[in-house]
Amino acid sequence: MRIERVDLLIANLFVEYIGVEEFAAFAAANSHSIGLLSCVTQHNDEEGFVSATELASSFDALASISSDIDVDELTFALAGAGFAASTSSDYELPNGEVLRRRDFAASAGHS
User: For the chain, which has fewer Cβ within 10 Å, the N-terminal or C-terminal residue?
Assistant: First the structure.
């Protein structure tokens, strides 16, 4: 899939559902169209990817396709797709989960 030129592409809580390889392939196919690629992934604790609430069962179907993303693997895959890591931040949540933000700039010759 090709996209039009964008300065910023936000892919928050998305990579977990399509996987690193598929996401990197999309990024590579569009490396000339993306200025900055921002990703937030969720690192889960032992309890799973959904906080315990009365609505948690609503996400049961998603649990079968969601996976934890290794941010080093994501960084390596996106480097191969023409993106260099630019910034990173981790946000610890009260339930033990961590939101991990990683931004990637198009490498020289790819933007």
Answer: N
Res 2: pLDDT: 83
Q: How many CA atoms lie within 13 A of 52 on its CB side?
A: 6
In sequence order, the 6+-apart residues with CB closer than 8 A to the CB of 102 are: 38, 39, 40, 41, 71, 74, 75, 85, 87, 88
CB 33 within 8 A of CB 4: yes
Predicted TM-score (pTM) of the model is 0.80
Q: Burial letters for 54-83: b for 16+ Cβ neighbours within 10 Å, e otherwise? A: eeeeeeeeeeeebeebebeebbebbeebbb
Q: Looking up tokens 């809580």, which residue turns up?
A: 13
